[in-house]
Structure formats: structure tokens, C-alpha cells
Request: fold
Amino acid sequence: MLKYQYYPITVPDRGAGGKTGNWRVVRPLVNKSKCIGCKACFMFCPEDTIKIDESDGKVYVDYDYCKGCGVCSNVCPVKAIEMVSEA
Ligand code: SF4
Ligand code: SF4
Reply:
């Protein structure tokens, strides 16, 4: 059996690659009226840039570190996150 340190577990780290700057092509927009607060986007974001709004349990995005990968949009069960162009 593998020892703990060899398990293939990844842990997201907020903006591990630094601030995104101006190279992001698309950004996620959360439609709070659709969001059901399931936190799937929060769990799968590789940059740890989905944040939980304590006032309503729904989510918002820290755009300083979001890389625009679209993972959050893909995992949302109610399609509450739309990827929109930065242009
Ligand atoms: S687009 Fe990618 S980096 Fe940005 S919030 Fe969604 S999952 Fe996280
Ligand atoms: S995955 Fe969708 S429904 Fe779930 S918290 Fe994120 S935006 Fe809301």
C-alpha cells in the first residue's frame, strides 16, 4: 500500500501562478439567480478563486487570480456560470 505522501492528491492553491494580469481571454460570470449554492465550482476550481458569499451561501469569483479555464462553468449543474469574452 502506498504511503500517504505518494497518493495522487492535488490541493488547489490560490493563484499559485501569480496574478493573472491581462492575458485572460474569457472570464466566468456567475448568475446568482440561477446558482443553487452547491459549491461544485468552489471544489473544482484549480486556482481556488471561487469564493463563497457568506451573506447568501452563493459564490463569486476573484478575478485577480482566475485564469479563465472554464472548469467552474463546466461543472455547474444548473449552468449558472457563463464564460464571456474579455474583449
Ligand atoms: S475559470 Fe477556472 S480559474 Fe476561473 S474561477 Fe473558473 S475554474 Fe477557477
Ligand atoms: S456550481 Fe453553479 S450552482 Fe453550484 S455553487 Fe457554483 S455557480 Fe452555484
